[in-house]
Fold:
Amino acid sequence: QVQLVESGGNLVQPGGSLRLSCAASGSIFSINGMAWFRQAPGKEREFVSAIRWSGGTTYYADSVKGRFTISRDNAKNTVYLQMNSLQPEGTAIYYCAAKRGMVLLSASQTYDYWGRGTQVTVSS
Structure:
């Protein structure tokens, strides 16, 4: 079993920045990929970014390319999402996810473990 705990969600003004953290514990040796998804009220959960645990290859949704950066700290078993130039459309609950597989990193249904989420609100 793998446990994921997100943190860092907050209220931020448009154009501001925020860094989310996801700490993993448990059987982390089984994890090959980790990702961030988000879900706004009344909308489907959508892919934001993903990273391969080994090698560190990163992937981004087109909507966040150039503004968001995903990274990892293997020693701390933690994944980060640096979010810059935040806009109201970024308001959502952000979820951290981890998977044992190596493919389809943008597909939420392929992930095995999920955190409870952290709220990000972008508003003036």
User: Anything to note?
Assistant: The two ends are 40 Å apart (CA to CA). Residues 27 and 36 are 19 Å apart (CA to CA). The mean pLDDT is 96.
